[in-house]
Specification:
The chain has 261 residues and is an alpha+beta fold. It has 2 domains: 2-89, Rossmann fold (3-Layer(aba) Sandwich); 97-252, Tumour Suppressor Smad4 (Sandwich). The chain has helices at residues 2-5, 20-23, 35-42, 62-67, 73-82, 106-116, 123-134, 193-198, 200-205, and strands at 29-33, 52-56, 84-93, 96-98, 101-105, 140-146, 149-161, 165-166, 170-171, 183-189, 214-219, 221-234, 237-259. Strands 3, 4, 5, 6, 7, 10, 11, 12 and 13 form a 9-stranded antiparallel β-sheet that branches. A two-stranded parallel sheet has the order 1-2. It starts with a helix and ends with a strand.
């Protein structure tokens, strides 16, 4: 491990903008952290030739799951050394790139709750945040348009995934792939929280679409609108709690990611 680390320039920063000048001169950029860290690093890599490597060490690590990157530190470091760079898609939402998912409504609020939990890490923190949010969250009217198809309903949540996993391993968009040129969409209409709890196992297996409240789609251009405030997260980081409109699209093959050959 120590020998490997000597090969890297280690930069501790709160923003990719602080070291943007280095990016074009690097052979590889490794993000050590969770989905938010991968997102931050990816902002400076889109459209360039420097590959991204991910060493997952965050709360959910859903981007790593979606990319097939091992969650164990040793295995992830091995992949960093032995993997090959291949193009993957990146999403674009309201002027910002995302690598894994955007959550709207219940998803966005639960993510905010998870950020307030300082004494617990990993999937347990996410699970606690989900159940906390269920106690008070109410569905709001939203209009979702996916490649011209429109759904206007009172909506519990919308999840838009470049990959299949969110929330520490939940499959809301099980058909999504990070290299297929499409975004997966999961729309959940107004639903009783007890129904989610009783079907929680289906979130793990990717079969939640058997419920009549759930609609799953794919598309490349997506608009989500509401007259009421929408809490939104992007790759596990709060984008805002009072957003009224989101414009999303997919950018095929926008970055290079080190993956299994």
């Amino acid at each position: 491990m120590k020998m490997l680390l000597r090969c890297f320039l280690i930069s501790l920063t709160s923003s990719v903008k602080c070291y943007g000048a280095y990016i074009n001169h690097l052979k590889l950029e490794a993000a050590f952290g969770g989905d938010g860290t991968a997102n931050e690093v990816a902002q400076g890599l889109v459209g360039g030739n420097t590959p991204l490597a991910v060493i997952p060490y965050g709360t959910g690590n859903d981007f790593a799951r979606s990319a097939g990157i091992p969650l164990g530190l040793a295995a992830a470091m091995d992949l960093l050394c032995q993997g090959t760079a291949a193009p993957i898609d990146v999403g674009f939402v309201n002027g910002r790139y995302f690598v894994n998912a955007v959550g709207i409504g219940f998803d966005g609020r639960a993510n905010y709750e998870a950020e307030q939990i300082k004494w617990l890490r990993g999937p347990l923190a996410i699970l606690l945040a989900i159940f906390r949010t269920m106690r008070y969250w109410k569905a709001v009217p939203m209009t979702l348009t996916v490649d011209g198809r429109t759904i206007s309903r009172t909506t519990y949540l919308v999840n838009i995934g470049n990959g299949p996993f969110v929330g520490g391993g939940l499959k809301l968009t099980p058909a999504a792939r990070i290299d297929d040129g499409m975004l997966g969409v999961c729309h959940v209409a107004d639903i009783a929280p007890i129904k989610i709890i009783l079907n929680f196992g289906r979130l793990k297996t990717g079969t939640i679409d058997v419920l009549p409240e759930v609609t799953q789609l794919t598309g490349s251009n997506i608009i989500v609108e509401s007259e009421l405030p929408m809490p939104v997260h992007v790759d596990g980081e709060v984008l805002g709690l009072d957003i009224r409109k989101l414009d999303l699209r997919i950018l095929p093959g926008a970055i290079q990611l080190v993956r299994n050959p």
